[in-house]
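Look over this record as teaching material.
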Amino acid sequence: MCGIRTNKLPVAPYSIGFVYILPKSIAIIIYAIVFHQVRLSSKRVKSRNVTNITTACITLTFVKKNLIVMRNMLVILNILVCGGAPYLILMLWDFIPNGNPPKELYFISVNSLVSATAMMAIVTFFKDKRLRNRAYAWFVQSNSNARSLSVFE
């Protein structure tokens, strides 16, 4: 398999920066902003006229939602980090003088990035309850239509 050595061309460090580090940094920044906005909105919901018990329940609900958002964010980012780790190892290995990485590592690095991207899409799909329920309803409906057509033929 053909691979670009990082000690010859600066393409690999730029590609790791733009494909691997930059999207994760942007995702972390966006999730941090969302998390911060959720915390601010939970503080605004508190009213002086609401009893302490109701305020405690509202605060507990927002804390649970914040934890769910953070858990989902960490799961997605960990999938992406694990998928890009072989390519990062390959890039760092190329900086070693006279260090030739095994050819299988090129294959593993490309496939791990593709697999991580697919896994991220699947995990995102299963984490979204509304999307999952709509897809299930569509699947059940399309299967019932297919069965009704086959009965009349």
